[in-house]
Amino acid sequence: MNLLEIKNLKTYFEKNRVISKAVDGVSFVLHKGEILGLIGESGCGKSVTALSILRLIAEPGKIAEGEIIFEDGDLLTLNTEKMRAIRGNQIAMIFQEPMTSLNPVFTCGNQVAEALLEHKKITAGEAQSQVIGLFREVGLPDPEQIFSAYPHELSGGMRQRVMIAMALACGPSILIADEPTTALDVTVQAQILELIKRLQKERAMSVILITHDFGVVAEMCDRVVVMYASKVVEFADVKTIFKNPRHPYTTGLLNSIPKIDSVQQTLNTIPGIVPDASHYPSGCHFHLRCFLANDRCKNEKPDLIEIEPGHTVACWEWEKVVHTRER
Amino acid sequence: MMIVYILKRLAGAVPLTFGLLTLTFFLIRLAPGDPTAMYIDPNIDPDAADRMRENLGLNDPLMVQYGKWLGIIPPFEGVWQGEFGISFSKHRPVFDIVLESTGNTLLLTGGALCVDLVVGVLIGIVAALNREKKMDHIITVGSLFFYSMPHFWLALMLILIFSLGLGWLPASQMHSVNVDQLSTPAYIGDMISHMIMPVFVLGIASAASTVRYMRSSMLEVIKQDYIRTARAKGLSERKVIYRHALRNALLPLITIIGLSFPFLLSGAVITEVIFAWPGMGRVTVDAIFARDYPLIIANTLVAGVMVIVGNLLADVLYALADPRIKLR
Ligand SMILES: Nc1ncnc2c1ncn2[C@@H]1O[C@H](COP(=O)(O)OP(=O)(O)O)[C@@H](O)[C@H]1O
Ligand SMILES: [Mg+2]
After folding, report:
1. Is the pLDDT of residue A137 over 50?
2. What is the pLDDT of residues A307-319, one digit of tens each?
3. A chain contacts of residue B235, beta-carbon cutoff 8 Å
4. In a domain, B88, yes or no
5. Neighboring chain B residues of A79 at a CB cutoff of 8 Å
6. pLDDT tens by residue, A140-174
7. Angle subtended at Cα A119 by Cα B129 and Cα A59, rounded to the nearest 5 degrees
8. B181 and B70 assigned to the same domain
9. What's the gap in Å between the CA of B322 and the closest CA on chain A?
10. Does residue B326 form part of some domain?
11. Which domain holds residue B159?
12. What ranges in chain A are assigned the alpha helix state H?
């Protein structure tokens, strides 16, 4: 069942007459109760997509076009008050930077309780006991004490747990997690991912998990959206993505996963870098870095086509893409 | 812990203050002019001036004068004993004179500080929220105008318009002449009408710089991640700005206000002279013209203590407002 449907989303930033098309025609569907991975290198437009869903794009950004269908309505047409009633209540978000995402001058408990008091009709006392319950649920030791702790007194992993508690406070049906572990130590990363997975199951939430790491996708996700330079390039369930990837960018990302049993230590990274959103190349945005690129790729943008049920690709040469993961 | 910190800071301020007073002691004696000059009439016996100098102890060698001032040589009536002497020109203990005027100066600077904070913070927020828009540009020009305008000029213009022209506000002093006959509310109203112009003149220039600081501080804060978090919670823009952003944007302002306190005091000198406000500034200026050494020193001491306490207060406030700061 579709819980959230994004249709042809375009989010642009305009600075000094230069337009950055950070998200340019993105469409995908989030099902009820799934973890949807949104993967791509840094600068591909993942965060902008996520922030667009909550309409948190700041100046000079604008959602130029598109629809975001949630509960039979288009979020992009709601007035400010109705949108606020959804933010943090039905759709919640956690961010990449736990060190800076909490307000340094308020206690952790206060900041989580604020979300509850904003959306639910409860007293401050009830909010406090609920927050302490949430802190326990996200595995924070000594929840009563952390309630009155300030963010700077906690480690990065603990702050991210506080952020998760804040996001879960009102029992949202969608959690958007924007690279929730990128800034954390490796050991803590696994714990946070496990926590998100556990909470998703227990609460039957849907999660959009943004990452640049296919290892995380393999562990966590049901289906995957691969984004490159403002566009969706491939979309499939997780098994298909790993077994039968059909976009050269996807195979490039898969090849760059470090292999534990590999004798050779070098990483097979994709040559080149993600171009800046203000000047994407003509044709397929990936053609400059693509080993299959031909003249057509240079001049014409490929559309997303469904090559098998539930598997879409935007590539002129998808039939030539054969992925062999060397073992 | 806070108490220990405050005591430590105050203890540290004692040698500082002492150094300041010693410096003042020598500087004013090195400055040209002499306390007896203003009594000297060409028709009077020149010996009279010398007798006066002798009486005031000004014919002693400088180091002897300093020793007497400190109270470490006979007659042992100096700073060490808490004696700051008798005013040369007013013939009363200096602290009686200074204390009468300190309250008036605090009233003036306190009022100016309120104008500074209220006007500066509010307009600074408006500027930040309308960044690069027409309102922001108007505020920028306006604050530059008030910032670069000398106190005396603004004061004279206001007197010209509101006292001489419109006759709405009294041009000088702190009370009207008939003050003794006024009831309490009328007394307060009378004093407020006397305060408006000097407080405005003194406050508005610092408010203009507060606007600039507040604007940039606010702009810095509203792009922080925790502001995005606050919005993602579904808070209203009002709560995002006035609860989450303002509190953080005010932090650097506390320090800046603490640092600007000396400028407020020195601005008060000019303002008090122009409006004939009976405060420390005017007493100091009179004392300097009269080369009234003990009175100058007493004023320096009080102003110094006010600056030190102001800075200490700013640091304590900062620590109270920012949980990341621990005073030690
Ligand atoms: N505030 C902004 N102003 C201008 N360009 C922006 C802004 N935010 C993001 N972009 C641009 O949009 C593109 C996508 O950014 P982002 O969504 O943050 O990437 P990702 O999250 O995938 O790493 C980048 O090229 C970035 O430069
Ligand atoms: Mg990102």
Report:
1. yes
2. 999 999 999 999 9
3. 84, 88, 114, 118
4. no
5. none
6. 999 999 999 999 999 999 999 999 999 999 999 99
7. 25
8. no
9. 6
10. no
11. 95-321
12. 46-53, 80-86, 108-119, 124-137, 143-147, 156-168, 186-203, 214-220, 238-243, 248-255, 295-299
